[in-house]
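User: Could you check the structure of this?
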Amino acid sequence: MKKKLLIIFLCVAMVAAFVTGCASKQGSSNSTESKNVDAVAKNKVFVSADWVKSVIDGKQAESKDYKIIEAAWGPVADDKDYNKAHIPGALHLNTDDIEEGTYWNIRPGDEIKKVMANLGITKDTTVIVYGADSGATRVAFVCLWAGVENVKVINGGMGAWTKAGYDTKTGVENPAATTKDFGSAVPAHPEYVLSMPWDVKTEMAKNDKFRLVSIRSLDEFEGKKSGYDYIKRAGEPAGALWGHDETDYRNADGTFIDFDKAVKMWNEQGITKDNEIAFYCGTGWRATIPFLMAYENGWTNIKLYDGGWYVWQMDQNNPVQAITPEQAAAKYKK
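Assistant: Sure, the predicted structure tokens are below.
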């Protein structure tokens, strides 16, 4: 009888140990606890999901005043991804709120100031942005242009957050507007932007170091397609160089490539830090990726040509090219 009871006891103990072990493993793979993460510099833009979690958990200097923004085109009710799962505390931002509807350029400063206030953002608020596409970097750029002094983009976006095992929320989180003054004129950095074609043509005419750099696909650059269903014309502004497409700036997991790889791509087209560079794309989204990469690495010779190909091609008098990247670069090498 004692032997039978001993066997039963041992079996119960083994089962308990197995269950405890499984529970421990499950907890470690889906941990909601933040890790010990080092602080990052204010000009550091692309940050890890671990760093963002440490901000949420009150472990960073930024924890005292921050906002997390999920950027996507369209109203929050239509954003199925956000409603299904978003980072706790994240506010949806419709990119229409930061772009006017004629040229899709950045809205005037007074309108952006209202957008910031409605989201509870001042220049001293740390803004952390993520999204499914380059709408996230577009919003991050606008925040910098406006004057927000600490702007971050989650490297790898929502994929990096869920891969780390952190919790998500469903439904809509509503912003708490602030009545505080933004703290500076908006934009605080108008020098970051060339808005229209005549701004670009002026730079080209007076500045030998100026380089207009296309962040579009190779087929778009060579004039084989416009790249947009609402843009009929194909080609590029005459004098543009190819800076590669958005996909070339991303790794397979959605994170961004190392900066030295980006610099190598530019150097192959004759684009260097000695130049004064204006990145552009179709309507100002993709081009914000290399701008932010260069910005966080201390480059000060960079701008965004906001009008892009969309505005350039509207005027038949603006010169257009449809050539290979090698042919474009050869013009400057001469």
